[in-house]
TrEMBL record:
The keyword DNA-binding applies. Residues 250-316 form the HTH arsR-type domain. Coiled coil: none annotated. It comes from the Bacteria. This is Helix-turn-helix domain-containing protein. It comes from Streptomyces roseoviridis. InterPro entries: HTH_ArsR_DNA-bd_dom (IPR001845), Metal_resp_trans_reg (IPR051011), WH-like_DNA-bd_sf (IPR036388), WH_DNA-bd_sf (IPR036390). Pfam families: HTH_20 (PF12840). Transmembrane segments: none annotated.
């Protein structure tokens, strides 16, 4: 059983996240996709589709979860991807090292993970590229729906607080839980005691993790409780939109992935590493996109840097998702 201990100050500091957090929602979705659990057939189909369509650039995320539990510094409440990336990058080096040590123990870590441990900028860029690639594949097509669901959940909670008070609103979020003598009890197979001691609690609904609560408990910060909400199945793309990503049939999968990576500048070597292709192949794809006016390239000494143009950004959508006709 999960038991969250409140003080009087903590009850006064309960707040509901005003907006969904893209990286929290992404990590919830990936957890649901890779950890097999019983569920309705539609959940199995969703899981299979996610795993089939994840781009190769998202591969490093698997290295961050060698035993099924990701490092805590990955879970942040940034309202946008750039904000979330900035918050992750500002993690204290001591916390990064301790969490990587916890995740890997005595198991040998890949070279880029060792670079992350040593605070190498290239390894942090690998994390950012992988998270962006996964977001664009898994969440971008349904992000508008996630935002709608979050607003609906926010309104339900606000009305419950206004009509019945904080205690009743909390237990209404998760049927089967109870708040008794300052302790919010969540039935479950594992036992965990969490003491807020004046830090407060942030409530964050997730629409991609139906199995139970996810908890972030970092020293000196409010505890974040990510709880299952919505209909119990991950949201599907808008029925009025094209079911498949329209860009790969036009550009090809590799060029589509490359164009999306170039939301931030990359060298040819960086592109090759992210896409798992040779430098020559990455350079050829960038040249083809440059000829179409989708990419610009600058040279500084022996280094070549690519970034997408305004037209390239327009083709992939403002948030990186494909535009819809």
């Amino acid at each position: 059983m999960l038991r969250i201990h409140f003080t009087a100050d903590d009850l006064a500091r309960v707040r509901f996240a005003a907006r969904p957090a893209p990286l929290q929602e992404l990590h919830a979705a990936l957890t649901t996709a890779v950890v097999p659990r019983p569920g309705p057939p539609l959940l199995g189909r969703w899981r299979g589709r996610v795993l089939r369509t994840l781009p190769g650039a998202a591969g490093p995320l698997a290295d961050l979860v060698p035993a099924g539990r990701p490092p805590s510094f990955l879970d942040v409440l940034g309202d946008t991807l750039p904000d979330a990336f900035e918050r992750i990058r500002s993690t204290a080096p001591a916390l990064v090292r301790s969490e990587l040590e916890r995740a890997y123990g005595t198991v040998p870590a890949p070279r880029w993970i060792r670079g992350l441990y040593a605070a190498e900028e290239a390894s942090w860029q690998t994390v950012q590229r992988a998270q962006r690639a996964a977001y664009e594949s898994v969440l971008a097509p349904v992000w508008a729906r996630v935002q709608d669901l979050h607003r609906e959940e926010f309104a339900r909670y606000a009305l419950a607080v206004a009509e019945h008070g904080v205690a009743a609103a909390l237990t209404a979020l998760a049927p089967g839980t109870r708040l008794h003598e300052g302790v919010w009890e969540w039935p479950g197979p594992s036992s965990r005691e969490v003491r807020l001691v004046g830090r407060g609690l942030v409530l964050l609904p997730t629409f991609h993790h139906p199995a139970g609560p996810l908890l972030q408990d970092l020293p000196g910060r409010p505890v974040v409780l990510t709880y299952p909400a919505g209909p119990g199945l991950p949201p599907a793309p808008d029925a009025s939109a094209t079911a498949e990503d329209p860009l790969p049939p036009v550009l090809g999968r590799t060029r589509t992935d490359l164009l999306r990576l170039l939301a931030t500048p990359h060298t040819t070597t960086g592109l090759a590493r992210a896409l798992d292709v040779s430098n020559a192949t990455a350079s050829a794809h960038a040249a083809a996109l440059r000829a179409a006016g989708l990419v610009t390239t600058t040279r500084t000494g022996r280094s070549v840097t690519h970034v997408r143009t305004a037209l390239g950004a327009l083709m992939t959508g403002r948030d990186g998702s494909p535009t819809r006709g």
